[in-house]
């Protein structure tokens, strides 16, 4: 049976207080991630953040956190969950699409910040390879590509988790033109040539 990203899934993994450490959710944790990504994008762009594209956005949890920091920035989210889009689509600017659809889908101009958080380690290789070049094209500034590997002590939702080595992702991100900055942050191909030697994690 394929994994269902329905209401029960999000209630369990994002809001169940009984899970404590295993839970993915948590307002303070999310706020720190968002603040890190926004500050990094603005450092490299040398201006306030204007646009965010979130691929595999789930319920669009980044949207309200971003609006608190940058009320004028646009946010556009995509996810394959019918439940998430039906419940939060209109309110948070979410639309239905799978990761692999970004092989062809270009829904907006390249964004200042591209987010793909806790997604790629659940994808099969074919879908990952199909969609990743599209994400690179849609990123004009910084990408937050939060991805976990078999070298990590993964807790929480391990159903369908692909235990790939970190090198698997590094090779693909670099082949797409991304440059590692650390803390799941990657410089877009558009800005890759502007990095000083010690600004990158390479």
UniProtKB/TrEMBL annotation:
<dbReference type="InterPro" id="IPR029063">
    <property type="entry name" value="SAM-dependent_MTases_sf"/>
</dbReference>
<protein>
    <submittedName>
        <fullName>Methyltransferase</fullName>
    </submittedName>
</protein>
<dbReference type="Pfam" id="PF08242">
    <property type="entry name" value="Methyltransf_12"/>
</dbReference>
<keyword id="KW-0808">Transferase</keyword>
<dbReference type="InterPro" id="IPR013217">
    <property type="entry name" value="Methyltransf_12"/>
</dbReference>
<keyword id="KW-0489">Methyltransferase</keyword>
<dbReference type="GO" id="GO:0008168">
    <property type="term" value="F:methyltransferase activity"/>
</dbReference>
<dbReference type="GO" id="GO:0032259">
    <property type="term" value="P:methylation"/>
</dbReference>
<feature type="domain" description="Methyltransferase type 12">
    <location>
        <begin position="53"/>
        <end position="139"/>
    </location>
</feature>
């Amino acid at each position: 049976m394929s994994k269902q990203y329905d209401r029960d899934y999000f209630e369990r993994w994002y809001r169940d207080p009984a899970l404590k450490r295993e839970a993915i959710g948590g307002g303070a944790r999310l706020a720190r991630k968002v603040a890190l990504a926004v500050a990094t994008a603005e450092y490299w762009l040398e201006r306030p953040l204007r646009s965010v594209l979130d691929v595999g956005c789930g319920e669009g949890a980044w949207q309200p956190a971003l609006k608190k920091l940058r009320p004028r920035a646009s946010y556009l989210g995509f996810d394959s969950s019918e439940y998430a889009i039906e419940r939060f689509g209109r309110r948070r600017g979410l639309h239905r699409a799978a990761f692999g659809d970004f092989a062809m889908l270009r829904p907006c101009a390249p964004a200042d910040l591209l987010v793909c958080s806790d997604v790629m380690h659940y994808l099969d290789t074919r879908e990952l390879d199909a969609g990743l070049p599209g994400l690179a094209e849609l990123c004009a500034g910084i990408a937050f590509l939060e991805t976990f590997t078999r070298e990590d002590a993964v807790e929480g939702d391990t159903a369908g988790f692909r235990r790939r080595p970190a090198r698997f992702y590094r090779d693909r991100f670099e082949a797409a033109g991304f440059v590692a900055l650390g803390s799941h942050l990657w410089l877009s191909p558009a800005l890759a040539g502007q990095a000083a030697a010690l600004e990158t994690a390479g």
